[in-house]
Design brief:
glycosidase, alpha+beta, eight-stranded antiparallel sheet, 19 strands, Immunoglobulin-like, about 350 residues
């Protein structure tokens, strides 16, 4: 028989898989999809695990929006949130005891947390967030949680432990007169807070520090900024705000407070002058109140000598300056301060300022 030839323009029709093969092919395809999904999930889990491990340091968990610190028993004793921006965790790396990040949601930055263990019962963390551009403020929020907190500043109404009411946007953390300005900070303040859960925080002295609070959320706002602020950057440095502080946790309140006091608050190194205890301190307030000037100070000194009184020193009291917190003499009231001090020293007086 002759072989039948198909025309050149005709394509043979492919045979369809038999009905028996279709379920098998579907199962193979489904299995392949599940296998790929499992591999992807495993890779993601492994990467996430490595990332989480990389961002953990002893007793502290760092997240994009803040960090928590636990004590040796696993209890959360300190919680803080990054209020002005969040970290880009992809830019973070850990080398030894230092965990650092180079980017945030607002741009490049210099961020690090360094773990320091000064003694067996104390664990500390040095934290630094520095913006690399002028203008933006750095703000972190510390939660009181259910602990009692102590420290901070003198207030017009003093509570122990701290009890704040209402809401206050961050304001410069500087001394003021609580009698004239009831909501201001008083003449005594420290950048230090201590909790009943044996956690403590000390803001570095170099920070252009502003403090606020939200009593409803039980939080303190720690802010660093130069814009619209009395703080000025050090000479020759860019006005890049930096918020840096040290958080320490211990086994009990007494031991952590003793450690922080030894670390940050020096004890007196010398005995005060004996005359300050033995002889009177003459204050201009007694005679002149706020109405003080150079002639009155010199007249006051002459009167003390004239009547033969002993003298520890003269205290030049309220309003020798144009504004509270200023150490420059008012040039109208005191036209020649150098001459005044020379005369007082010549007459055997020491001088202190209110």
């Amino acid at each position: 028989a002759k072989e039948r030839q198909l025309p050149d323009n005709v394509t043979p029709v492919k045979q369809k898989p038999s009905k028996e093969l279709r379920p098998m092919l579907g199962a193979i395809l489904l299995g392949l999809i599940l296998f790929i999904a499992a591999v992807v999930a495993w890779c993601y889990y492994t990467v996430s695990l490595r990332k989480a491990e990389r961002l953990k340091t002893e007793l502290m968990d760092l997240r994009a929006d803040g960090f928590v610190i636990r004590n040796q028993h696993g209890e959360v004793v300190f919680r803080l949130a990054f209020r002005s921006g969040s970290l880009d965790l992809e830019s973070c790396s850990k080398e030894g005891e230092i965990l650092s990040c180079t980017r945030s949601s607002t741009g490049p930055l210099n961020f690090f947390i360094q773990t320091v263990k000064p003694k067996d019962t104390v664990m500390c963390y040095r934290v630094r967030w520095e913006e690399l551009a002028a203008g933006p403020a750095v703000e972190h929020t510390m939660f009181w949680e259910d602990a009692h907190w102590y420290g901070g500043s003198e207030m017009s109404t003093q509570h122990w432990p701290i009890r704040l009411a209402g809401y206050q946007e961050p304001v410069p953390y500087v001394t003021s007169d609580v009698y004239s300005f009831r909501d201001s900070f008083g003449g005594i303040l420290e950048r230090y807070w201590l909790s009943s859960k044996a956690a403590a925080i000390k803001i570095n002295d170099s920070v252009p520090f502003h403090l606020g609070f939200n009593a409803t959320e039980r939080t303190l706002f720690f802010q660093a900024r130069y814009k619209d602020s009395p703080y000025k950057p050090p000479p020759g440095q860019q006005p890049f705000p930096e918020l840096s502080y040290r958080v320490c946790v211990g086994s009990d309140v007494t031991s952590i407070h003793k450690y922080m006091v030894r670390r940050y608050f020096n004890k007196p190194s010398k005995i005060p002058a004996e005359n300050a205890f033995r002889y009177p301190i003459w204050s201009t307030w007694a005679l002149y109140k706020k109405d003080i000037n150079q002639d009155k100070v010199l007249h006051f000194a002459r009167s003390i000598k004239k009547y033969g009184f002993n003298c520890s020193h003269i205290e030049i009291d309220d309003m020798y300056t144009q504004a509270y917190g200023d150490f420059d003499f008012d040039p109208v009231k005191f036209p020649n301060v150098t001459e005044m001090f020379a005369k007082l020293r010549e007459d055997g007086f020491k001088v202190t300022l209110w």
